[in-house]
Amino acid sequence: MEKKRNYHVKFLTENDVALAEAVCAKCEDYFLMEQGSGATRENAHTIITEIPEGKTKHDKFVMAVLDEADKPIGLIDVVADFPRKGQWIIGLLMLIPEERESGFGKVLYKVIKDWATDGGADSLRIGVLDENAEAIGFWSHLGFEKEEEKQRTYGNKEHVVHVMTQKI
């Protein structure tokens, strides 16, 4: 059974890079997998500021997930109506290692799903690195299905990215 959590989110702006950086630093394992090097302040800045082509800062929502003591424990990045109207992309749902496998990721996913539904979305989309087997299992368990594979380069590493979607 999932533990009841007292958490809240803070919508991030460029002034909040330190909050994003705190989560990125604790999620070093992900950055090593993704780009072959540890997390940097620039990674945190990019998460907050990078906007897909054709979208504006009003379409992108980056949130720090904070625990009861206001300690950052996760990051969420969502872009509305991308790559098409009605489909929202989860650019990132990252939890620090101590919070993984606790059921909390599923709670956050449900919040994102409800929010997207309220915002008019008919589906969700996420890209997952092929070597991130735990994440592929997580999203598959939630009902996401692989739609296609894309080649992407992050840092010095080339990846196969599973593009997964779910109708909502």
Task: Describe the protein.
Pfam families: Acetyltransf_1. This is N-acetyltransferase domain-containing protein. It comes from Listeria grandensis FSL F6-0971. This protein has 168 residues and is of the alpha+beta class. Helix content is 30%, strand content 33%. The protein contains five helices and seven strands; from the N terminus they run E-H-H-H-E-E-E-H-E-H-E-E. The protein has a seven-stranded mixed sheet with strand order 1-2-3-4-5-7-6, with helices on both faces. The longest helix has 15 residues. 27% of the residues are buried. The model has no long low-confidence stretch (mean pLDDT 94).
Per DSSP E runs of 2 or more residues, the count of β-strands stands at 7
CATH class category label of the domain at 8-122: Alpha Beta
Biggest sheet strand line-up: 1-2-3-4-5-7-6
Strand percentage lies at: 25-35%
Shape: globular
Q: What name does CATH use for the topology of the domain at 8-122? A: Aminopeptidase
Corresponding CATH superfamily of the domain at 8-122: Gcn5-related N-acetyltransferase (GNAT)
Largest β-sheet summary: 7 strands, mixed
